[in-house]
Amino acid sequence: MADFDFEQFKKDMLDGVSSAADSIASAAKGAGDEVVRYKQFNETGRDLFLSAAVTSHGGNLSVSDGTTIWITKTGSMLGHLTPNDILPLAWAPSERDRDASIELPVHRAIYQALGREALAQGLPFGSKAIVHAHTPHTIFRSLIEDAIVPLDAEGILALGAAVSVLTPSQVIASQEAAELLAQSITEGTRIAILRGHGPFAVADTLAGAYRLISCLEQSAFLLNLFEQTGRKPG
Length: 234
Fold this sequence. Notes:
The chain is of the alpha+beta class and 234 residues long. It has six helices and eight strands. An eight-stranded mixed beta sheet has the order 3-2-1-4-8-7-6-5, with helices on both faces.
């Protein structure tokens, strides 16, 4: 009978414990990431609803790491999001897409365009987020102008000289809208408006994208206010 190899047994035990610890740590990190992600979705969705940037079931949110897209479910209420309202989807279209927001093709087209842009520049994709809102002053402005030109200092600082209004033949969930927005956003801007439908904003975080939406709505409100009072800026 061969002698029992205590040293090998100890090594196997330690390797097993180490492997189990790594698995537990990985699972804990994944769970922690999900909690943080849900918190960000929940807070941004609530802010959008409370600021009247969306109606009860309007708007949509997403984030991506360049491999997965997490997006709000179709019919979800941004002001009352639950963890089940946030769907993890593949970078490419799949069967699970049917449960996601109908604006998923637009979100995916923007992320893929940003991915190609990062690859061409030799940069990592990192993390990106998209907020689509139905902000009333911005939408009103988009019906009468081809661009929103901020007059206020914060608007100019956050948005630049102007925010384009895009006019696809179908503004909701169309391939044309997806292509126009992806092109606009990769040409230097990080926010653009679909005429009569509202803005799409891109940033590294949902909070950052919401800031762009908020600043644009404030700028549109001030422009509308000047028109209502009949006064000219300056």
